Amino acid sequence: MPVSALAFEPLVDVQARNMGEAQADVAIRGGIFETTGFRAGAVALYDPQTGHYSAEIPAAPAMLSAPTVLTGADNALGGWNANAGTIAYEWRRVRTGGMASAGAGDNRLWRAEAYQGWVSPVGAGGRRLAADVAGAWSDSDGSRTFGESRFRRYNARLQLAGDGGQTDLFYGWQSKFISWPNLYTPYNVIESDDLRTELLVLNHREELGGGDFVAAGAYWRRNVDHYVYNRTGATPGPSNHTTWVRGAGAEGRLTTGTFAWNFSANFIADKLESDTLTWGRFNTRNHTRASLAPETSWALAGARKLTVLAGAVFDDTNRDASAVSPVARLALANAAPGALADELYVSYAASSQVATYTALNSRPSAGLFRGDPDLGREKARNTELGLKGARGNWAWTAAVFHRSERGLVDWIYSTSLPNARVASAVDIDTTGIELVARYTGRRLDLVLGYTGLRKDADYGNASADASFYALNFPEHRLTAAVTVRAGRGWEIRLDNEARRQKPNALRVTGDDAVLSAVEVSYTPPRWSALRLTAAVDNLWDSDFQDVPAVPAARRQWVAGATLAW
């Protein structure tokens, strides 16, 4: 899945239940799963029931670009309903060729994947018609009892592409069954989730030169969810939910004279049908968002350039009050030899978002999940100071940031109400530092990262003995990804993470963890189309709970082969 590549990304914290492909919450800069957004081309992907399903993107990674993590001013302008950050993908250019992969491992794990792309000769206007298809399948009994997962995904895409632009028409269908102890609650029962996700996207992007571009798209998404709280008991009964989303978006950058105009616009209409989320004030909602931010630059002495960007974002729904959020960025580029960095910048960005239906429409006075139909718009203010640089084989970024959030919707646990999770608004301030260094060489690649976070939270009158999400964060997190090309067809990948987590009353294991994954691959020198792999996840068999009270997946191994043509 696309989320697979994020597991050890230094800018992203993937909080997995079982494997990340089974269920994963994605957090950015100490945010929570519902303050992280996803984009594919010009459209913002969204699940209105719960942010737990936002990462359910039924698209083969081979069809998507490597993700870009948008934060600060970039997120305010290019994100949607995501106060912490956005994972942004573009549609990859189709090439003639394909691959097939298969593997097997312990816990009766098997997996398979296939991809094929075709590109026609150059046609009228220098454009090519292309198409690709993909399928993926996996089954596992899981590393814990009642921890099985079943996965199927099918994709098809048509593409018209040339030197200046690309149009993609994509359809994806995905089914997933997951089961795990304490999947979403801390009550020591076996829970399961059965999902069916469909996505239809039309996207066009036109490059205009000099960094200017325009992009527009539209999509339709349906997610069907069958959740069972206790697979081995009779009550409470299963919950059934279906959500629909229709959306359209456009973004671009156009230069006129000395000004460049950055703009975006989105419209999203959602709908929920549910047999349990029926206690709110509405089950349909229309969202409108527009942003405009002109920027201009001045050349300075010493090969330096100053760029100023300033603008605003307008957010509105037909159910909530609207909001206008200012955005500003000041950047100093320095091309002089020996400069400390290629760019120094400071930014300020306000943003806002609204809660999902699980928080709004769960019954307020009874049940496992307690909602609040009066939860209002969540607002954030982001301030950031950072630098970027590259020298030789090295590239690095550093940032110090502060995010002040008001009315963030968190799920809390209270000893006075031990049999429920309660959606509660919290005012929370997050201060952090983020350092990333990347080295690319002939034999060795390195990606090193460090994130340090501190939070101050005020839940008002709510009784919060523990937080499932807002206060589940690493105070210190180190990542190290190492790729060694040892020669004669051998390659070794080591992904490592060390973290010191904020203490949490719901976590029954330690707050410190070292997590590693290793993959060894071999490509026969005389048959470069074949790649043999052996991999181990959770190498040290750590019991660290990514999400408090949710048992960790145990050590797992898999071996397989990939044939490309």
UniProtKB/TrEMBL annotation:
GO terms for cellular component: cell outer membrane. Its main location: membrane. The keyword Coiled coil does not apply. SUPFAM superfamilies: Porins (SSF56935). Residues 139-539 form the TonB-dependent receptor-like beta-barrel domain. InterPro entries: Beta-barrel_TonB (IPR000531), Beta-barrel_TonB_sf (IPR036942). It is found in: Cell outer membrane. Keywords: Cell outer membrane, Membrane. The keyword Isomerase does not apply. This is TonB-dependent receptor-like beta-barrel domain-containing protein.
